[in-house]
Structures are given as C-alpha cells and as structure tokens.
Amino acid sequence: MAITTPGARPANPRFSSGPCAKPPTWSLDVLKDAPLGRSHRAAVGKEKLKEAIDLTRDVLGIPADYRIGIVPASDTGAVEMAMWSLLGERPVQMVAWESFGAGWVSDVIKQLKIEASEHIEDYGHIVDMAALDYDQDVVFTWNGTTSGVRVAGDPIPANRTGLTICDATSAAFAQDLPWDKLDVTTFSWQKVMGGEAAHGMIVLSPRSVERLENYTPPWPMPKIFRMTKGGKLIEGIFKGETINTPSMLCVEDYLFALHWAKSIGGLDALKMRADANAQAIWNFCATRDWIDNLAVNAATRSNTSVCLKFTDPRIKDGAAFAKAIAKRLEVEGIALDIGAYRDAPAGLRIWCGATIETSDIEAMLPWLDWAFQTEINA
Ligand SMILES: Cc1ncc(COP(=O)(O)O)c(C=O)c1O
C-alpha cells in the first residue's frame, strides 16, 4: 500500500503527559510581574500565593468551607502528606488500576505498615468503586494517567464516615470532581494547566480537617507533612503561608494559567477542550483496525491521558513497535513524548488536556497513520 506523507503539521508537537504543554497564549513575557528576589513572606509574595489559592477555588468550584493549600513536592508531596497525616485511625482500602495508584498502595503497606485491604485492577480496567466500604478510608487515583482509565459515574456515597483521599492530578481542571464526595484532593500545576512542577495542591474537606485535629498518627511526622500544631490546623498554610519556600516564578506561571482558564470560560471550557481532543483520537481509533484504546470500557476513557495500544496481528514485538512509532513521530517533530509510561503496557499515551489545541491533535493523527504504515512495512 502506498504511504502518503501528510502535508499539515501540528503547530505545537508537545503532547507529553507531564509536564504538559503551556496554555496556547503563553510566552516567557507573561512571567514579567513575578516578584523575583523578594520574600514569599513579603506582602507582594503573600498576595500572589493567596490569589493562586483563590483562583483555584474559583475555577474549580471548590466549596467555601474547604481548605486549599500549596504544599511541597508536587502531587506526590500532597498525596504523601495526606496519607501520613490522616491514615491509621480506621481500616483503609487502597485502590489502584495503574502505576501511580499502585505506588500509593505500596507506600501505605510497606512504609506506613498499615494492614490495608488492596483493591487492584489491571491496566485498561477499573476497580468497582461502588463496591467499596466508605465507612473505611479509601485512597484512590481519579484519573489513571498511565492507563487512561478514570472514575465514571457517582460511586461514592455522600453519607460515608470514612475519608476519601483522591489523587486527581491528571483530572483536575479537565473533569468534574464531586467535592462533596472527596475529603482530600491533590493535584499539581504541570498537568492540565501546563504549569511548572514541584508545587502540590491539597484540598481538604471539613471532615478531613476534623480528623487532622482529633487524630495523631503513631509515626513521626516530617516538617513538610505537618498540617497541625498543638492539635489545631495551621490555618496559615491555607492562606498562602507555605510550609517552606515556593518558587515565585512558578506561582506567577500558575496565576497566568488560571487567568487564561477564566478568560476562555472557566472549567466548562477547559473540560470541553479536553473532551474535543480526546474525541478526535477516539474517532481516529474507531476507523482503524490496528489501534485501540487501552481503556476497555468506553465510559471510563480518560479525556486527558489518552492511552492507546496497537492491535495489528502482524506486530511481533509490541514494545519495540510502539517505541519505533513514537520515535518516528519525534524525529519528524510531529509529536514529542508520546510513548506509553515505562510500567504500562506497550503503546502510546497522547496528552489531551485543556492546553492542547484540537487542531494540533487533528494535524498529528494523519502522521500516526503514516508512522504505522511505514513501520509495519519496514
Ligand atoms: C496520577 C498521578 N499521580 C502522581 C503523579 C506524580 O506527580 P508529581 O510528579 O507531580 O509528584 C503523577 C505524574 O504523572 C500522576 O499522573
């Protein structure tokens, strides 16, 4: 079969699943108001940090009685501080269906040494979230970034007595998060918002604050995990008085992304952009018999981290084939960083979050045809 080389090219070939593409209107110039060389505890620094918290609440629709903090060590820092600070008070269910969730399971069982029950599904599938016991604590990932599978429906009861701790780093700003069902929610800036790495966000429900103030875990608590002092929440953390020094350059960058989000129509617009991007890829797969979603159930397909597998029976070494495709697209400058995550099944992972332009996805897909045909004939 003759292979045609597509004419159009994506304007931006950055489809990495993190750090993700910057908002389309970003340039280095947007950082010029960053209070560089100033203390984050000076009024100017505090104001910027508070604005980042307030705008996060505004764009995500987080209830007024939930605390929002900027914490060290990105999403990992936020998840770890939640688990170390809150778990151990009652039985825990650890839930995972891909690599990052599996990491949290291992941390709780091997590091905190809690005898948690494990609820695990393989890549492409999802745990039956409605079958869990929500009078126990539940730790889970909303959107499995490395499998492209996300929570669907409304499985968490509002009247639970346990806490839900949710790693939502590749869901926040692109998917609806039911705040009344989430007691701790974490994310970072470098995913859907295309921000910079190293800063984590933690969102606490009133019930998780109550647990923090009334339960002291039996293990030592590193300073960067500590959210209470003398049995009381350190409220300053949730007003921008960070535990340690943040980068004001990164804060400025996050503020730009939040203002961009508001300017295009807020959360609804962000979700619509991610949906349109993912839909373009799903349509592509639906009309090809050699590529498919890793997500088995269409209702659980992620609209951010779209994970794909090659299904052509002529492929002998799936991992080598997928790598070769990703490499061809990278060398051509068409798509950067789209190989599947190192622990995930062989395939591609194409970021579709809100900072990605649908026109770039559409310009990239004919090249995927081209790369597939070239590689299968090689
Ligand atoms: C679901 C999930 N959790 C945690 C992480 C780790 O995030 P960070 O590097 O911000 O700590 C990632 C990164 O891709 C992720 O996708």
UniProtKB/TrEMBL annotation:
Pathways per UniProt: Amino-acid biosynthesis; L-serine biosynthesis; L-serine from 3-phospho-D-glycerate: step 2/3
CDD domains linked to this entry: AAT_I (cd01494)
E.C. numbers: 2.6.1.52
Highest rank taxon of the organism: Bacteria
An example Gene Ontology biological process: glycine biosynthetic process, by transamination of glyoxylate
Enzyme class at the top of the EC tree: transferase
Keyword match Transferase: yes
Disordered: annotated segments: 1-20
Protein keywords: Amino-acid biosynthesis, Aminotransferase, Cytoplasm, Pyridoxal phosphate, Serine biosynthesis, Transferase
Signal peptide: none
Cofactor(s) needed for function: pyridoxal 5'-phosphate
Catalytic activity: O-phospho-L-serine + 2-oxoglutarate = 3-phosphooxypyruvate + L-glutamate
GO MF annotation, one: L-serine-pyruvate transaminase activity
Family in the record: Belongs to the class-V pyridoxal-phosphate-dependent aminotransferase family. SerC subfamily.
Classification via PANTHER family: ALANINE--GLYOXYLATE AMINOTRANSFERASE, AMINOTRANSFERASE CLASS V
Name this polypeptide is given: phosphoserine transaminase
Species of provenance: Octadecabacter arcticus 238
Organism phylogeny: Bacteria, Pseudomonadati, Pseudomonadota, Alphaproteobacteria, Rhodobacterales
